[in-house]
Amino acid sequence: MERPPAIAVIGAGEAPAEVLDLAYRVGSEIGARGATLVCGGRGGVMEAAARGARERGAHTVGIIPGFDHREANEYVEFVVATGLGEARNAVVIGSADAVVALAGEGGTLSEIGFALKLGRPLVALRAWRNLEGITHADNPRAAVETALRMAEERRPGRRRAERSR
What we know:
single chain, about 160 residues, seven-stranded parallel β-sheet
């Protein structure tokens, strides 16, 4: 059985209303397309995206820095309690087939670094225009469509099927 793609949404734990609205809409687009949302499990962008995804019936995975499941926001369906602190950022990215990045700070930048290092497709939504190696989008629908397309292109089964034609 093929699993749905997992899209990580990364961004600030405390963000302005405009960024939270974008995150919610990204989560909603992920849910509308039957993908799974992966995030850091806490507040801000993570919570807004998880809320949007859950309201559309998507599965949500929150990879939290501590061991206390209560750290996760209420829209996280599956909590992965790492006890790794900020090093959990590598787990967030490693668990995703593609990444959508919104505005953030040092933690988000570390996740962007992991995405580039691990070769995960990365789409920045109205953010991070000064960084190379990132695909950019100006609206939530385009960000999610691009992330899903890029994730699909990387799927091992797809490469085998294309080679056998």
